Amino acid sequence: MDQQVINLTLVILGLALSFVFAGAEAAYTVFNKLRLEIWKKQKVKLIKPLTYFQHKPEDFFSTILFGNNIANILTTTFATVLLVKFVDEGSAWLLITAGILIFGEIIPKSLFRSLVNQVIRPVSVIIYLFYWIFKPVIKFLNFLVDIFLTLFRIRHETTRDFYSKDELKLLLKEGYGDSRKKRPEMDYIDNILHFGHIRVKEAMTPRTEMVAAPDSISIEELKDLFIKHNVMHIPIYEDDLDNVIGIVFLWEFFNGAQNIKDILTPLEMVPENLSCARLMQEFKAKNISVALVVDEYGGTAGLVTMDDLIDVMFGDFPEMFEETPKIKRLNRHTWVLDGNFPLDDLSELTGIEFPQGNFETIAGLVLEKLGHIPQKEETAVFEDFRVVITKANRRKIEEVKLIKNLK
Fold first, then answer.
1. Could you list the residue range(s) of the whole structural domain that residue 215 is in?
2. Can you give the residue ranges of the CBS domain (predicted)?
3. CA-CA distance, 386 to 380, in Å (whole number)?
4. Are 385 and 400 in contact (CB under 8 A)?
């Protein structure tokens, strides 16, 4: 009876070891290695064994292989001794095979895969202890593998850590938490990850805001236009904006040009649905920095520059002569500011929590609220504040007065 208990105990031990080794292999295979970097940053406990196996995966898999074989031999040997007293040898082998398959393969691998982040650290400690106990044997196994690979001229595959978009998003989320306002680099990385999905029409200067000139304009008039609008380039069109014939850059005036045609540069045309990533590649390949955006009918939709593409990734970088949006505080609860003043910056300056929506500026918020381009003195009323239009034209809101409600 005592021997039967010992045999049963060894069978259970063998199945338990097989359970752990099979589960550990499955967990390690699907474990996101980027999470380990996050745990290091957060100083999570029990990650030293996992860190070791990250740099020495051959030790991990050799340990798993060796341990699993020991577990299966243990289970098979003593389970056979137990079962042959009750069933024939063939039935015993069938039951043993089914038991190992279910409890030593299917269940642990399914379970550990679903709970990978919870089990990977404790199970790596177990594997690490087993590795140190049988280190000479495992190192010998690795040595034999190296000899085999050398004889057949098979190289060890060197791996590099390339991370997917989802993995990088995980790093942002878990590495920095919700401190987005304090970590602008999070926005930069997030923008870069989505850069390939953004279309040119979302980055361009729309047709209604383009500064352009007819081909009949004189050099002096064109100079005045550059000065008035503080731009670095002006497209030139014939008859109307749907027939742009080229572009003039500011620096061309230093060459002493006498007429427009002398300084006119051909303008590349791109479709509005082209991805920003593809356009940036074209800019670099053709060594250009500006292109005309056309719609599906061939009409002018807008103008896009390399600066626009960079803005999409890293936020607005002002051009050489570009003015930043202005704001002036009149008293404790009143400000006068440009319509294109960013809401995020405005919230920090005023302490007002602005509604969220598909807009980024105070003008966009007002347009969303009113549903039309307002006239001067028109007011948009919100729960905690109101916005009075102080300057506007038929195309956009130029200046507003922000009044915070007193509580």
1. 200-314
2. 263-319
3. 6
4. no
Look up residue 339 and give its DSSP letter: T
CA distances from 67 to 10, 46, 95, 131, 197 (A): 15, 21, 22, 9, 47
d(CA 100, CA 78): 13
Residue 219 amino acid letter: I
How many independent structural domains does the chain possess?
4
One-letter amino acid at 64 equals: I
3-state secondary structure of 86: coil
Res 182: pLDDT: 46
DSSP 355: P
**Does residue 145 share a domain with residue 72?**
yes
Q: How many helices (H) and strands (E) does the chain have?
A: 16, 12
d(CA 291, CA 267): 6
pTM of the model: 0.45
Whether 270 contacts 200, CB under 8 Å: yes
Instruction: Inform me whether the pLDDT recorded for 34 exceeds 90.
Output: no
> How confident is the model at residue 181, as a pLDDT?
47
Of 330, 322, 340, 329, nearest in space to 391 by CA: 340
Closest listed residue to residue 299, CA positions, set 216, 242, 230, 375: 242
